[in-house]
Design a protein that fits this description.
It is built from ten helices and eleven strands. It is an alpha/beta fold. Helix 2 crosses helix 3.
Length: about 325
């Protein structure tokens, strides 16, 4: 992976693994997060004119995901609506730099969004007063955590938002709360093994095969397997993270100061039958006005990642939200 750069760069992409459109141009861009090079795809709308100033939306992907999946889909669709959009791989993930590979560090993930704001707000064709933020799944939690104190983002939205810290700490609906101390004991032992030169231990975000799905798997986990390992599988997303990331994740809460987003607007979008719905509901209850919890009837957590019958109205909702607030 390339070393960190002191200046951000761009390179036009001739093919894109997720969505192709005659109405946008996609450029590969890089920018630094401290000593890590972040790699992103910049989507430029039809008839883009570098001499004009455009409203911009930065899009964050889920844990275990990369920019070519659901983040790229929404970036593409919003660019078709006239926004400049940026979807990027988080530090240690995808094409972005960072060692050790597949470390899942929530504070670095949060800093990625500050680095993205550094990059996007100095581009000549961007209106720095019209930059929005969109996060999906755990990316939604990181978006909220960053936006609490990052005022360069003027309008914040999430889709199927998850607090990644709470999820690793407590599991879905508290299913792992009783094992917190045991898992932290295991992390400590594993760190000692690795400090002595032992092999890095990895965990999976979802099952690697249908046979690996536990009998009691919830719908989000089952559909996550189907999305990440079957229908939208990407070589740059190998479905693993460093096990010892758990000490950082368990210590993290995305929603400590949601109220600080106000008076900037917050839009939370979630499926009505999503296992994760309670995370968006919790964020909504903690936030101050202006805020909205937009429920998509009949949709699961993963449905909102890619299914046209849900993506299309969500894009319209986001277009209206950013159009009014940027």
């Amino acid at each position: 992976m390339a070393e960190a750069q002191t200046k951000a760069g761009t390179k036009k992409i001739t093919n894109h693994t997720d969505v192709k459109s005659a109405t946008t141009t996609i450029e590969r861009v890089t920018f630094p997060n401290r000593n890590i090079t972040i790699v992103g795809n910049l989507y430029l709308p039809k008839d883009f004119d570098k001499h004009k100033k455009y409203p911009t939306i930065v899009v964050g992907h889920p844990n275990g995901g990369v920019k070519e999946q659901t983040a790229g889909l929404y970036a593409q669709k919003l660019a078709e609506k006239g926004f400049v959009t940026l979807a990027f791989d988080a530090s240690y993930q995808g094409e972005s730099g960072g060692e050790p590979r597949f470390l899942d560090d929530p504070e670095v993930r949060t800093e990625d969004f500050r680095a993205a704001a550094d990059y996007i707000t100095i581009q000549d064709y961007i209106d720095p007063n019209k930059v929005g933020l969109l996060g999906i799944c755990a990316g939604g939690g990181y978006v909220i955590h960053a936006a609490q104190t990052e005022h360069r983002y003027k309008a914040i939205a999430t889709i199927s938002m998850v607090d990644g810290g709470d999820l690793r700490r407590n599991g879905m609906n508290g299913s792992l709360t009783a094992t917190i101390q045991q898992r932290l004991d295991e992390v400590g032992k594993q760190r000692t093994i690795e400090a002595n030169g032992g092999a890095i231990r990895y965990s999976n975000f979802v099952a690697n095969s249908k046979e690996d799905l536990p009998a009691n798997a919830n719908r989000m986990y089952i559909e996550g397997y189907e999305y990440y390992r079957v229908t939208h599988k990407q070589e740059t997303a190998p479905n693993k993270y460093i096990f010892t990331s758990l000490d950082k994740l368990i210590n993290f809460t995305a929603l400590d100061h949601v109220e600080l987003i106000s008076p900037r607007p917050l839009l939370l979008i979630a499926g009505s039958i999503a296992d994760s719905y309670y995370f968006s509901e919790r964020a909504y209850n903690l936030a101050k006005e202006p805020k909205e919890l937009y429920t998509v009837d009949g949709a699961t957590h993963i449905d909102l990642y890619w299914k046209p019958e849900y993506v299309t109205p969500i894009v319209e909702k986001l277009t209206d939200f950013y159009g009014k607030n940027l």
